[in-house]
Amino acid sequence: AQSVTQLGSHVSVSEGALVLLRCNYSSSVPPYLFWYVQYPNQGLQLLLKYTSAATLVKGINGFEAEFKKSETSFHLTKPSAHMSDAAEYFCAVSSVSGGYNKLIFGAGTRLAVHP
Amino acid sequence: ETGVTQSPTHLIKTRGQQVTLRCSSQSGHNTVSWYQQALGQGPQFIFQYYREEENGRGNFPPRFSGLQFPNYSSELNVNALELDDSALYLCASSQDRDGEKLFFGSGTQLSVL
Fold this sequence. Notes:
The complex is a heterodimer of chains A (about 120) and B (about 110). Chain A is mainly beta. Chain A contains no helices and 11 strands. In chain A, strands 2, 4, 5, 9, 10 and 11 form a 6-stranded mixed β-sheet that branches. Chain A has a 5-stranded antiparallel β-sheet with strand order 1-3-8-7-6, with no helix packed on it. In chain A, strand 6 and strand 7 form a beta hairpin. In chain B, the strands form 2 sheets. In chain B, strands 2, 4, 5, 6, 9, 10 and 11 form a 7-stranded mixed β-sheet that branches.
């Protein structure tokens, strides 16, 4: 069975500081991995995805994530936080079985950015 | 290109009632998936519809049911509502049933009192 664990339900950084949101996965097959962002009262927006091409994936809004098979990790980073990055972030793994695809999400990490 | 739209945005029901939530898929998408997001948790897969047929189901009881229409819009129905059904319900559409890119709506916030 596939699963995702996000370490840290809340992360707080200063504006301009490095953002690091941690995600570890468990999968018996090569995984497809995703990061989604959810702003208040909104749905989920795809930040980036890993689909077995380059291990360093660049996404929108300056975010990137690195797939590390040896560590079963897919951590999300951004060099310099902006106030507008404050949101909930979800890591997810794609599970394809029986002809359909579903996403298995972590519990989320709420990012706070303070001046 | 239109996005995924859900209605209503908010809904309050009492325990034991029935509710219907609606979703319009993104143009050109034939697959819709529904997710339940309880407070403080990540979304959980309820089921997926592909070309008007249920194509896959998560660990939810039969009182959660759905429909997909010829125009690929969709409904989620929940019977005999329980307090634990209070959650944000998200609809996501994709171009195919094994498509990895999902487009999410803004969700319907359901409160069961």
